[in-house]
Amino acid sequence: MTRCLSRRQFAESAAAAGVAAIAATVCAGEQGLAASDPAPRKKRIVDSHVHLKHGDAAGTEYTAETIVDIMDKVGIDKSIVFAMSTTTRRSIELAKTAVSKYPLRLIPYVYALPHYERPVIKEIEAALSEGLFRGIKIHAGQCTLAEYVVDPVLDVAGRYHVPCLIDCLGNHGAARRMAKAFPGTKLIIAHIGRYLSTDRRLLDQFIGLAAECDNVLLDVSGVVIVEKIAEAVRRIGSTRVVWGTDGPHPKPDTVTFARTELQKVQQLDLSREDKDNVLGEAILRLLGL
């Protein structure tokens, strides 16, 4: 029996097909590059922490075009993008729009934010099941890290084999609980614990947590005690340290900001292999890319 689709059903079907096409394009592009280039591949630089929408007071937004322009000028091959200061549903929409324009340059994460009107777990699961979204972002500045909020998200991440990038705002106790409670979920701790922290003891606590728990990785965006990046590499290995800018950022300008963040790692006294891992290979391996 023939069934007529409603306008809404047709739109949803078309949207799903579009996402599948984007995901297929990404996979085909990666496979095609590998098959067509028999020479050793140039190590790729990946910015693992880029905002389509920031968590500042203004909720500043940046377009995909702006982000890719910065990448081109700095020499960044791929960026992981996500939106915050918005709903989970809207974060998915913003990321899909951006990645549809640059499917071989941008990698999307979904933003997990509780909603009092509806459960967002279903929205996160739907996004991950499409194959386009490669991770989840959680920010303690916009939701509590209490068990009843974050545990369902961490469970979903583990089931779909995607990492959670978590800004803990320095809450080492919460980070340790999550790492211990979900050993099968990869947790990427943003900023080695706290953005722009000058508290060496706090950074040491998070490096120690990563040394203790194999499922914990450290994001080094916004780290101002730069030698702690090298220390983290020495203690837990470069395959669990990932670079990012936490950009775009307008001061002094978006390009200079990103270039300065990149040079922080490039100028460290690390082996070439360790630098390659931190600047892209580690996160690509984690995401299966």
* Beta strands, count: 8
- Trace the largest sheet across and list its strands: 1-2-3-4-5-6-7-8
Question: Which topology of the largest domain does CATH recognise?
Answer: TIM Barrel
Class of secondary structure makeup: alpha/beta
User: What is the CATH H-level superfamily of the largest domain?
Assistant: Metal-dependent hydrolases
Classified by CATH, the class of the largest domain is: Alpha Beta
Please compute the radius of gyration using only Cα atoms: 19 Å
Q: Spell the H/E element sequence.
A: HEHEHEHEHEHEHEHEHH
- Average pLDDT figure: 90
Strand content: 5-15%
Portion in helices: 40-55%
Largest sheet: 8 strands, parallel
Distance between the termini: 43 Å
Poorly predicted tracts of residues:
1-17, 31-38
- Write down the domain tally: 2
Question: Judging by the overall fold, what is the CATH architecture of the largest domain?
Answer: Alpha-Beta Barrel
